[in-house]
Structures are given as structure tokens and as C-alpha cells.
UniProtKB/TrEMBL annotation:
GO cellular component assignments: cytosol
Name of the top EC class for this enzyme: transferase
Full protein name: Mevalonate kinase
Lineage: Eukaryota, Metazoa, Ecdysozoa, Arthropoda, Hexapoda
Similarity remark: Belongs to the GHMP kinase family. Mevalonate kinase subfamily.
Biological source species: Papilio xuthus (Asian swallowtail butterfly)
Coiled-coil regions, chain positions: none
Pfam families: GHMP_kinases_C, GHMP_kinases_N
Reactions this protein catalyses: (R)-mevalonate + ATP = (R)-5-phosphomevalonate + ADP + H(+)
Domain GHMP kinase C-terminal, residue spans: 293-350
Keywords carried by this UniProt record: ATP-binding, Cytoplasm, Kinase, Lipid biosynthesis, Lipid metabolism, Magnesium, Nucleotide-binding, Steroid biosynthesis, Steroid metabolism, Sterol biosynthesis, Sterol metabolism, Transferase
Pathway this chain belongs to: Isoprenoid biosynthesis; isopentenyl diphosphate biosynthesis via mevalonate pathway; isopentenyl diphosphate from (R)-mevalonate: step 1/3
Domain of life, source organism: Eukaryota
Amino acid sequence: MEILEVSAPGKIILHGEHSVMYGKTALAVSLGVRSSVVLRQQEPTGCPVVHVIFPNIDLDELLPLKPIAEIFPGEPVRVDHEDYINKINNLLCRIRPNFEELKDTQKNSLRALLYALIGIFGTTNLDITDFTIQLSTDLTVGAGTGSSASFATCLCGVFVKLVQLKTTGEILDFSEDEKKLVSGWAFNCERIMHGAPSGIDNTTCTFGALVSFKKGQVPVLRPSPELRVLLVDSGVTRETSRLTAAVAELRQCYSSAVGHIMEAMDNVALTAEQLLQKLVQPESEEEVHAAYKHLHELWEMNHCLLASLGVSHPALETIRAIAHEHGLACKLTGAGGGGNAIVLVPPHTQETTVTSLKTTLVSRGYKVADTIVGGPGVIINYKTQL
């Protein structure tokens, strides 16, 4: 029995929340919190099935493989996305009773699974037999940390590697060309989840490190140092569409003032990008200290600019105040209005300070992940043949 496991990071926005909607620069980075998909090929049976186990969304399904394989193209094709989705919807309604009664996250996950399976594996003319596919993730669904893009990247990555295993008998690390393939298919899976994604999430989850982005342009990959952060879950759910609409309304009422805020946020993002490039290969310890000091100041500015747009929240301000008491910079990330805050932990920070901060935050009811940003993208965690 062959076992493949592929993992991919989540993502967070460092700078450019909301201003990116108005043509300004946004910076996204890969998050040390990851998802993984494990594919286990089983012994062939007379009626082959795929066993789908996605516990984070309460999904445990057995789907027959024969009708799925019947719509495999069998050769590489340029697919029409909407036509492709319609075929998958019709198929799922046939093979999974009461499919339409599932939750949206469950339906979209099954759609994405078949989209990746048919689009990547189904164009190869390779035989497919019974297999189990299992997702695990430490990312919170719907919290602005790229959980759906991380999931999509893992799905597409594991099918790319399944093709490699069946054609060459071995598994290698992802090449740059394979990453481009994975990112492209993950983008299409993101279209299932979100309708009109920007491309920044699947790019960040696939390639890792730092991604610079402007609306309507292709995301640009940048090298990035690995920064230590505390990802703090405020426990407050937020509606991205409502927050986006509120900013748009504010801009309509105070176009000049909000325009200046957006320009300031763009300047913060561009300056932070330059500092992060310097930290990739710093020339001295003094340069590292200076860069982190400036990053601290930029995080403070960015949060206050976002707060002036009305997208902070009392819980986020509480988290930020606690971080300030410990001498560390903190900002909201994502749409705001709740969700997550991120605390920058420079390398010279005393561990007693970090421990005290984490203890205080947890005692106040917040979830804290001590992690990194700017790390690797999609990877093979292990390759086993039993």
C-alpha cells in the first residue's frame, strides 16, 4: 500500500488589508500553521471507492470510483470551468444521495476533490483503484488564514505526486514547474470556494515565503526571512463582506481622507517589503535590530490606519494592549472586526517575555499559536511504500 502525504501552509496578510481593494500593495506571507492531505492506495476491490475523511468539516463519505472515472478526459484538455463544475455537480447528485442537503463547506470540499482528481489524474490514462484521502489541518476554517487555499493546494499537490508515483515509481520534491501546476489547479478549486479569488492565497500556500500583490496584477513572489509571530485568535467571528462594504461607504463619504489613509497603507506595505528583503541576508546584527525596530513601527502604523477605517474590534484592541505591556508590536490581520491578531517577536526578545505574554493571553480566553511566517510552501512530508 502506497502512502502519500502533502502539506501546505496557511497564509496571513502582513500589510495591505482593505487598501488592496483600491489598487494598493498587499503583502501576504505563508504561515507556519499547516494543512496536510494523506492519500492511501488500498487493495483493489470489485467495486472501487474513494473514502473521503475530512474531520474538520465533519465529512466522512464513501464515493464510487467507477462513475467518477467515466468522466475522466483521458488526455490533457483545456477545461471550461463552469461546464466542468456542472458535470461534477450532476455527478455528485447521482452518486451521493441528498448531496444538496450537505453544508456549503462540505459540498464545496467534495466538488474541489473531484475537480482536482478529474483535472489532474483523470487526464493521464492511468488506472486508479480504491484509495482513502484524509485531510487534517491546524487552521481555523473561515478565520482569514487561507484554510481553503491550503486545503486546495494539498489536494492538487497529492494528485500531482500520485501521477508521478504511477508514471516513474518514485516521489521527488516539488519542482518549480509542478508548483506552478499545483497553484493553477488550486486557484480553480478556490473559485469553487470563493467565486472570484485574487490568486494571492493559492500562490502563497503553494510557493511559501512572501507574495506582493496589486489588484488586477499577477502576484509577485519575493524571498522572505522567517519571522516569529504569535497568531492570536480573538474568538470573534467576522463577516468580511460587511466590513468591506463599511469601508467602501466610509470612502464614499470621506473620499479625500480615506484616500490619504489608503496611500499611507500603501507606503507602509512598500517600506515593509524593502525591510523584509534586507532581512533575507542581513549584513550585521545591527542591521537586524534596526530592521525589526522599523517593522515594529510599521505594524503599529498599519493597525492604527486600519482602526481609523473602523475595522478593529474591542477584542483586538485588548490583545494589542496586552502585547504593548510586553513591549511587542501587534496588528490585526485580514478583514478585521474580530478574527486574528499577529504579534511580532523579534529574535532578541527574552523568552520569559514571550511566555508571560502567551500566559496572559490564554488566561483572557484567547487562543495563541507560536509560529513563523515566511516559511516553505507545499512540500512532501513523507513518502512511504508499504
